Fold this sequence. Notes:
Blueprint: H1 8-22, H2 29-33, E1 40-44, E2 48-54, E3 63-68, E4 71-78, E5 97-104, E6 115-119, E7 122-128
Antiparallel strand pairs: 1-2, 2-7, 3-4, 4-5, 6-7
Amino acid sequence: MSLALYQPYDLIQQLNGEMNRLFSASSSAEAQASQWRPAVDIRESDAGFAIVLDVPGVDPADIEITADDGELVIQGKREASESSETETFCKVERVSGTFYRRFRLPDTANAEAIAATSEHGVLTVSIPKQEKAQPRKIAVSVNS
Length: 144
C-alpha cells in the first residue's frame, strides 16, 4: 500500500481552473476544445506590442499563429509524457494536450509585420505598431 499526501488546495485550484474555463469569454469551438491555457503577459511600448506566453515543453513546430480580420490566434499542442514498462506515474500535474488563445488586435497594430520567437519555453509574439500617417499638403487644381 502506498501513501498519498492529501492536498486540499489542489482540489480548489482544479475547481477554480474548471470554472474559469467554463465561464471564459472565449466561446469558439476551438477554445472549448482546448485542454489548457498558457499564462500570458501583454506589453505595450512606443514601437509595438508583445504577447508573451509560457509554453514549456511545447515544440515550436507544434505552435500555429494566425492573424486574420483583426484577431490573433495562437494554438498548439504539448505531448503527454508516457510511462514505460519499468516505471509508472505516481502523480501527474503537468498539463498536456491542445491550447488555444485568441486576442483582438488593436487598430494601431501592423498585422503584416507580426513575428514570433521561442526561447526556453517562452513564446514571444511581437506586433509592431503602424507608422502614423504624416500630414501632407494637397495642391488645389483649377478647372477652366
